[in-house]
Amino acid sequence: MSREVCVIIAAKNAAQTIGRAVSSALQQPQTNEVIVVDDGSSDDTAGAARAAADDSGRLKILRFDENRGPAAARNGAIRASNSPILGVLDADDFLLPGRFERMLGENDWDFIADNIVFVDEARAAQQLEIADIAPQPRLLDLKGFIEGNISKRGVQRGEVGFLKPLIRREFLDRNELRYHEQLRLGEDYDLYARALAHGARYKIIHSCGYGAVVHGNSLSSSHRTEDLRRLYEADRAILALPGLSREERALIERHERHIRARYELRHFLDLKNQHGKGRALAYAATHPAALPAIAGGILLDKTDRFRRKAAAPAALGGTGAVRYLLASPAGSPR
Q1: Domain containing 211 — which CATH number?
Q2: Contact between 36 and 63 (Cβ < 8 Å)
Q3: CB count, 10 Å around CB of 74?
Q4: 276 and 141 within one domain
Q5: Longest dimension (CA), the chain
Q6: Which residues contact 116 (CB under 8 A, 6 or more apart)?
Q7: Backbone φ and ψ of 226, nearest 5°
Q8: Are residues 252 and 162 in the same domain?
Q9: Structural domains counted in the chain
Q10: Residue range 256-305, pLDDT digits in tens
Q11: CA dihedral defined by 278, 282, 284, 285, rounded to 10 degrees?
Q12: Same domain, 109 and 158
């Protein structure tokens, strides 16, 4: 079987987990390259990655002296790669056996993603029993992608922006697409949305091949206010692309409002914490359009701890169960 996949791993201070990620990628027979980008780590991430190498010579390690963010790291790996298919693996996650064989067995795609299983660190170190779910292939369009990325409070997260597709380099090159390096939050969402706007065929299969380790201190739970601003500005840039339908435009505008509301709340709280309540209230008074987001966000945050407490026992499925990103289609488990 030919080796044609480049696995890209952007890593910062990931010495404790990078070895598992690298090993799982090298164990895929279809892997041609594993490129680790040490993005300004202060620990020995590069050394830990190097220690996981096999004797195939497929592992490459790049290093940025200063942290530049995951988008810049992934673009650097794409430049260094010579493989026709690209795939992203987070430094604390891992690939399950047979993943690429199942994905590459499908045809007619520019992007193809499979299911993700969420586990905690303790379970990641064990032999996982993964449900045998039928692929049930389907195409994801821009409307479905955007709608699947608008999260709702009190609902188990299932955003399709979390998916980790394989990507045909030829499509990216032909449409001059790369990650936007100013984004440190939502960089995957932005690339996939722009690709779909350019006509990408994005196929999803429900069989599971990607293991995501859940941490309480993930980037998505500790992002900066500035990251939110840049993300809603990225939506505005997508809205400027030609050829969007009315329905697509309405959904992107909805996503932009959703992210902008989160930004307005965070900005208000930053002003309060850094400059006092008076400064924050003055901002709210002079930005009336932000008032619903600020008031609603404060109310929801004050009640959120009760919802989290009620949901905590089932966070990862309780006694031995695991949680999947994509719900299984009816009758699909084999």
Answers
A1: 3.90.550.10
A2: no
A3: 24
A4: no
A5: 66
A6: 162, 163, 164, 208, 210, 211, 212, 324, 325, 326
A7: -60, -35
A8: no
A9: 2
A10: 999 999 999 899 888 889 999 999 889 888 988 888 888 877 777 666 65
A11: 130
A12: yes
